[in-house]
């Protein structure tokens, strides 16, 4: 209890930092110290945090929303269309069997060995994977802030660690859960651009910042100019706000399940989908993303 209390005191002193883009958080620790991370101790600490979160009441609400949204996303996949009654699909989703067809991509987790907020967010990811019966190997994780030791710890947990900075430009070719806690606007915008079609967007299930919340916190002209895909997506996505107890404000605040119903996407004119230009961000003074080396 004393260790947890100390960690939360540290987290609260950093109030507000967790809600900023963690893609900007690069560990200041020397490389030699990062390599000396005790993998076994780190993995045990993460699993203890998983056990702690599993006992929280709000976790059950997260689980229910994942399974419901996962069932809806899977029903959009060609292999599953018109093969089963939607009510049966939803029931299977509640039991956690249907979501095993989902893949998962996690961006911007942060340095979980040194940051309590990042460790709780990693623990929540592991809980969601378990609830949806998504194999650990089918979850790919990436953050430029990961140390060598942290990458080894993630592999020890069974996750797949990406070695290249995709800048969020991952195409969803099958139903995919994107876990993006407190990521920057550019990362969301890049993901939307890469999947900007009526076929790919419905395959995406995002657990991350509320899009409407991002809009409310951004100057309107900058939002439209710099993050056009995010700006358009706000009006056609479906959001379900996830509960967050006050003591986890720095960890899970403003988090929502975001999906893209086909019926909403079809309301947009066909010109919306014609050759969408890749985002450039040339006029962004505070770009919340770490670019790949080839772009930097």
What fraction, in percent, of the residue positions are helical? 40-55%
CATH topology: Rossmann fold
| DSSP strand count | 7
The assigned structural class equals alpha/beta
Question: What oligomeric state do these chains adopt?
Answer: single chain
Count of helices?
A: 13
Q: How widely separated are the two ends?
A: 44 Å
Beta-strand residue fraction:
5-15%
Task: Specify the CATH class.
Answer: Alpha Beta
Task: Tell me the series of helices and strands, N- to C-terminal.
Answer: HHHHHEHEHEEHEHHHEHEH
Radius of gyration: 19 Å
Global geometry: globular
Give a structural overview.
This protein is α/β, with parallel strands linked by helices and 296 residues long. The protein has one domain (56-273): Rossmann fold, CATH 3.40.50. Helix content is 43%, strand content 10%. It contains 13 helices and 7 strands. The chain has helices at 2-13, 31-35, 39-54, 57-75, 86-95, 116-131, 148-157, 185-194, 211-216, 220-226, 228-234, 249-252, 262-265, and strands at residues 103-107, 139-142, 160-161, 176-180, 204-209, 238-241, 255-259. β4 (176-180), α8 and β5 form a beta-alpha-beta unit. The longest helix has 19 residues, at 57-75. The N and C termini lie far apart (44 Å).
